Amino acid sequence: MRERLIQLAKGFPVLTITGPRQSGKSTLCRMAFPTKPYANLESPDIRREATEDPRGFLARYPEGAVLDEIQRVPELTSYLQPLVDADPTPGRWVLTGSQHGLLRDTVSQSLAGRNVPIELLPLSFDEARAFPRGDDWMLDVWEVVRRGGFPPVWVRDVSSFDWANAYVATYLERDVREIRAIGDLHAFHTFLRLVAGRTAQLTEFSTLAADAGVSTSTARSWLSVLEATYAVRLLLPALSNIRKRQVRARRLHMLDSGLACALIGIRSAAELSLHPSRGAIFESWVHSELAKWRDAFRPDVRIGSFRDDHRNEIDLVLETASEVVLVEVKSGQTIQPEWARALQRAARYFSGGDGRTVHFVVVHAGDRQAMLDGVSFVPWNGIAAAMSGLVHA
User: Fold this and answer.
1) Domain range for residue 56?
2) Full-model pTM
3) What is the CA radius of gyration of the chain?
4) Domain end position, chosen among 285, 316, 345
């Protein structure tokens, strides 16, 4: 991601990096632009200056700067626009933020045509295993999935369960209340746990609302806030052959499996390996790995899911202009040929003569790679390499 950031800085005057808190945005900016001035708008004194005297604040950085957590002073982007128009030097300004939709809307309105957005999710598996202390854990799929990808659980001597619960209280709750007035935090906690328990499922707002004891409109609102703060992602249905009768409900994924485990109450890899939610959490972990690979290497790839009205479904669908990758996720560790049946049943929807190459992939929790009847069986620790080999530029 560092190399991609440096490359993009050669062509755009403003870069906007969004992602969840504690995902490493500030660290990435310091690594990519070590000589660039840095201002953290979370600091009350800096935020006060930027709010009360935006022109004077920006004048302190004639060569540009990294402005961290820009959503704290969103109006600052309007004052940036004339500065960028007067001096469109590439890579001059780098903005970071932790609120997805709101920040994107603000930046796109003020800096349209001058800005390139970049998304930074928590560490991928390949990034996490680069940390020396991660070596002992990298052979256990359930330990990796239970920990998730937030950097602190890999670099600090801290329980990932305790860290994730602290993250909810310290960051997620605060950000949520900044976006929406949440009157009943207890009800919201219940809702959040229910959402974690429904990871990798199609969204049914009425059922979710009833279980949480809130209205359907409240459930929709709260879920949109969780998406804006990068706690969840709602996948759109696949675009291919949209004339077919495809179920339009969006599939919900917790973006970090460690956070999902903590909210469900899973404390150890042994617990996860036997838990009824093991398959769903593993599927969401695979989705997150694919999203991180896409963001780092192939931002043109669209990730969706598929289910028709006969309950034929595919867990994940990756699409480009020339290729489609159909992905089934299995939490078993011994390859079974029948795992490919869902792909084969749904293949007719994605081979309608539009000229695109269709690939079939089963990602599993074992360590073997195989090719059976045109289906690639990919182990959990080989996802990025497999996708890079299948999806061509």
Assistant:
1) 2-119
2) 0.91
3) 22
4) 285
